[in-house]
């Protein structure tokens, strides 16, 4: 496909030259990028080139090694070329081209002022090229997956496994070289073995490289063969973490990663015994026990009435100091042994009475980062196997490709979050506090899906209820639930301020602590503390002007904005002690219809009242622009979300989402979510948007029919068009 690639860039060069010739009258270049690289021909030509690149490089290396005349010819070509470029460097040029274009466009955008006619075309070009690069990467991943599993199937020495690997929907998640460590009964390391661990979508396999092919180190090497040690169903693989039981990890510090990640193996001295974390951990428990006993002895020594040699407070202090030094050394040894260590509990064959048995496998990865990444891949693959994720996501353009489905979000779990005794509670709003525990001594669970806390507000007709879900462990759980005297309609998370706390502020407890603000139907705002270990602590409670119902909330470090039912936005500022002033600094009247949605952009607040959207400067609190979000009368904005330089807007009725440019307010795209929903739920039920979120390259749309629609959008600072 080299000719087609050359043709693409030849046409791009002609278009650029033409634009440069008329630069004085047409000062735009972004549209040239869009026109040149939005054609399907570009994607097809590049896909084949990129997918074939590894094979081409392997052939080049092999030919250079086996044909000296060819190698000599390449050297002569390199020496005679003006920039002394190698053939390999030339082959990588097309691969590097789009990332270079993306960086170039980002630089151009930094130097193109707002209001310049080329700014929107450059942002469109950035979006186009990012989308193209993402599609190329996706096709490359799919091609690599198919190629790698084919090679593994050929390399493994068992026919049954060959068949297992070749079956349709199974795919290879990753394969890693690891060191397997074998221990004796005393917890001492007996031997280590090099292993290749294959993580498939539903099977975990461990193999050793056949001795005859061990010198061939590349997985893609056709001569490499594997001897299978074991294979187990992925759903039955359990990770064993030391110190993960209740109370066990209290005295352990956060992991520190030493430079010698495989110190246990790499620096092994002859005639020296090395022990694993299991024995080290037991030694640590013994030392902690002894420290406690020595503390008691020290107290008894202090109560002696006579003076005795070697039996006084000074000697007792030396014992304590010595034990503390040993404990620190032992903790360091545990961290060094544990930072790259993965211990798995795996199902074995049944015993004679038919009961299940288990065996343990211990591996060391080559860096702490590989361990963390591998554990995350294992968790995601196991999650994908659970019954609730078994169906995967319903893809409208479903081509039966299981790999694509697995890249969609996976359901971690669901739980009741309301304590309903008499009335029926319905979830109304939520706010996420991403801050991990404030206590730096506590150790975060590496298998936790997220860290921090989720506050969920539920309502009946008269009252509200708050549930706080903690994500500090691998299993999220409700840690607090309490009632609120009025219906909760909105929430916002207020992060800690980056300035030193004053003594009087510390007394109030408002500054330096992350908080959650609740807006209620009765027209009040409540401020609650939201940090590790804190139970229900209400720091403030105040009413809005005329006790007007709070429909929406947004904040900056210094200002809190409340969208009210009477069409106004109340602006609250911080007092000296870090709490919010209970009287608004300003009330901005937008109209008469409720302000249902508030969103913060860089230096502006976006506020929706009825069918109009207003942009308000955060420094002067003046209305800068206003936008009519829909031409039809009676369309009321319900949700807004900003990503890059675009804002997606949803309405209280209808199933259409609209995208606008945040700088020019130009309308860019409409998407009707009824199409994918009715593919899944036939019949023409009325449909509306109930929630909106942009994250991880997806526009997530919650609907009134209980279906979530996920639409791909670019991740960079371009236009968040649905691609």
TrEMBL record:
Signal peptide: none annotated. Residues 1-139 form the DH domain. The keyword Ligase does not apply. InterPro entries: ARHGEF10/ARHGEF17, DBL_dom_sf, DH_dom, WD40/YVTN_repeat-like_dom_sf, WD40_repeat_dom_sf. GO terms for molecular function: guanyl-nucleotide exchange factor activity. May play a role in developmental myelination of peripheral nerves. One of its GO terms (cellular component) is centrosome. GO terms for biological process: actin cytoskeleton organization; mitotic spindle assembly; positive regulation of stress fiber assembly; regulation of small GTPase mediated signal transduction. Keywords: Coiled coil, Guanine-nucleotide releasing factor, Membrane, Methylation, Phosphoprotein, Transmembrane, Transmembrane helix. The chain crosses the membrane at residues 689-713. This is Rho guanine nucleotide exchange factor 10. Coiled coil: none annotated.
